[in-house]
Amino acid sequence: MKTKTKTDAGLSAGSVTNSPPFQSKRKGVVKDFVAEMYSFVPEDARIMLCQFRGDPTIDGRGKWTARILRRDCDNIDPWANVYFCVSAMKQDRRGRWRRRKDNFAGGLLLMIDDVGKGKGAKFPLSVLDPLPPTALVETSPDNFQAIYMFDSLLTDEHKFEALIRAFIREKFLGADTGMAGVNRVFRPPIGVNAKPKYGGWRVKCRQWNPENRYSIEQIVDAFGLDLMPQPRRATRLATIPKSERYTAWLDTWRFLKAAGMIKRYPDDDYEDGWIDIVCPWTDEHTDGADTGAAVRPPAPENEYTGAFRCHHSHGGRIKRWHDLTDWVADNHEFALDNANKNAKEFEDYEC
Ligand SMILES: [Zn+2]
């Protein structure tokens, strides 16, 4: 597909490459951007920020911990990899601000990743022709994220999820890991892309049209999407082929491995099938002890989905496999590169 020069999301080629006047007013752009993002965020909710310096593909537990993004942007480090969450979050019942589905307050924008001609780009800019984005952010040379800000707070989590999934089906969001949720993150127009191959690339705002605000219906219409409701889990399981369930297990396993959460690899006494891991909710264990959690690879006993168990009570709620996969979904964005890097090692281990 050839990229058109005049009509790409209403951009001329010139406006993409010259990007006046944003280069010289970087902090100004992000301040406007954040102010726009906060337009519909209610009093009891916040936008969440993750940032750290250095190579984002090198794993480090905790470096993706989310914090509140201040409205004045004073806590943004312009020399870090900077990420915002696509949804506003509220405190959970323990008073914590986190970037998790449990904290969802409302969707703010839709982000379409990997548009352009650069390394890693999956779609030409012309994919954006149906609807001019609110912002176009160059996250690495010739590789863009398109941001479509909503015209109100999208409080219907299932509708937001359906929208994101519809884009996944259309392959706009790249590989379908089944994990892209309402808590995903994107790079706002500030910070650096510190992957070594980009040599300290400073993330650039290539287009900023805050007047471009859209309803879900407008986005759905423009891109010809079909918002199918999320099938119920039981139905879904029955209809997912065994091979896909196995792939989902592999995604989870690679994540756990990349995050350094596998405690004991199976050896000869692997007969019971359980592999000890660090419990993601160790902080909920009554004594704080990091014990008792394990995963089991797909087997007939677990309908080939894989299984999770933890001997701790977690406030009276037993954690199951889908709790673990939800948790991974909350955290995977960052470890995925790393997990894929480790994929070869995984192949050495037959489970
Ligand atoms: Zn536990």
Could you explain how this protein is built, in words?
- The protein is α+β, with helices and mostly antiparallel strands.
- The chain has two domains: 13-223, RepB DNA-primase, N-terminal domain (Alpha-Beta Plaits); 233-348, no CATH class.
- Helices cover 26% and strands 21% of the residues.
- The protein has eight helices and 14 strands.
- Strands 1, 2, 3, 4, 5, 6, 7, 10 and 11 form a nine-stranded mixed beta sheet that branches. Strands 12-13-14 form a three-stranded antiparallel beta sheet.
- A hairpin with a 7-residue loop joins β8 (192-193) and β9.
- α6 crosses α7 (321-341).
- The chain starts with 12 loop residues before the first helix and ends with a helix.
- The structure holds zinc ion.
- Zinc ion is lined by residues 279, 281, 285, 292-293, 310, 312, 314.
The domain count comes to 2
Q: What is the count of helical runs?
A: 8
Q: Unreliable segments (pLDDT under 50, ≥5 consecutive)? A: 1-26, 174-179, 336-351
Specify the biggest β-sheet.
9 strands, mixed
CATH architecture of the largest domain: 2-Layer Sandwich
Number of strands: 14
So what's the CATH class of the largest domain?
A: Alpha Beta
Shape: globular
Give the ordered list of helices and strands: HHEEEEEEHEEEEEHHHEEEHH
Average residue-wise pLDDT: 79
